[in-house]
Amino acid sequence: MRVALFIPCFVDQFCPQVAVAMVTVLRRLKIEVYHPTAQTCCGQPAFNTGYWDEARKLAKRFGEVFADADAIVCPSGSCTAMVRNYHPELLGKATRVTANTFEFSEFLVNKLGITDVGARFPAKVTYHDGCHALRELRLKEEPRMLLRNVQGLELVEMDKAETCCGFGGTFSVKFPMISCAMDGVKVDSIQRTGAEYVVSADPSCLMQIDGYARRRKLPIKTVSLAEVLAAR
User: 98 is in which domain, residue-wise?
Assistant: First the structure.
């Protein structure tokens, strides 16, 4: 299988280590990966803000750039959901490309049938369910199955694991006070677990949580699922 890497804009610009970690895991599993350098944004910011014509152009480009891939793998539930659920709406039909785009944990567990990637991460962690992965891709157990097989890792569930962190892309820009209040609820839940790290399959959620924690000087560390799985 030849896997194309779909690297979201925010991962490329703010947390490229997440993409590197994903590649590390895939190569450890002897999977051939490549990065189509012509890729651009999936169109989600434009789509969510109501600029559907602009988003449609990006959806068409996405289909052209990834047309030859056996599978497209992305370290973000948010951007994966955009391609799989909303590109068909923009384009008027589902395509081979939209059907073959997978969030990272989804690809490992549901496509490859792998739940143990040989990782070691000795720490107590809790898991945050990003809204797009949970509600639009229906991914709940997949990341947890992977985490439970990480050597040395203790997974503790928070009482509000499925509560939104308040990011929502442009939502956090348009409604900062509401966004910050939602983030406070999430961070309080994280703190009650006593976990050293909060893990998520969506780095955009982690940026939101990390920003809140830093501003309040809270001892909460964020780490992406890909980085945990890449650790030895």
Answer: 2-111
The SS3 assignment for 148 reads: helix
Question: Which of residues 111, 133, 165 is at a domain's end?
Answer: 111
d(CA 225, CA 75): 8
pLDDT tens-place string over residues 106-158: 999 999 999 999 999 999 999 999 999 999 999 999 999 999 999 999 999 99
Among 85, 111, 137, residue at a domain's last position: 111
Given the structure tokens 């997978």, which residue do they identify?
Answer: 102
Spatial separation of the C-alpha atoms in residues 119 and 145, rounded to whole Å: 13
Please give the radius of gyration of the chain, using alpha carbons only, rounded to the nearest integer: 17
- 81, amino acid identity: A
Q: E strand or H helix at 73, and its extent?
A: strand 71-74
Q: Looking at the structure, tell me whether residues 104 and 134 fall in a common domain.
A: no
CATH number for the domain harbouring residue 64: 3.40.50
SS3 155: strand
| Burial label, 136 (beta-carbon count in 10 A; 0-12, 13-18, 19+) | middle
Question: 226 and 132, same structural domain?
Answer: yes
Across the beta sheet with 221-224, the strand order is 151-155, 120-127, 197-200, 221-224
Question: Quick one: 105 and 136 in the same domain?
Answer: no
CA 42, CA 33: separation in Å to the nearest integer? 20
Residue pLDDT, tens place only, 13-43:
999 999 999 999 999 999 999 999 999 999 9
What angle is formed at CA 75 by the lines to CA 71 and CA 81, rounded to 5 degrees?
A: 75
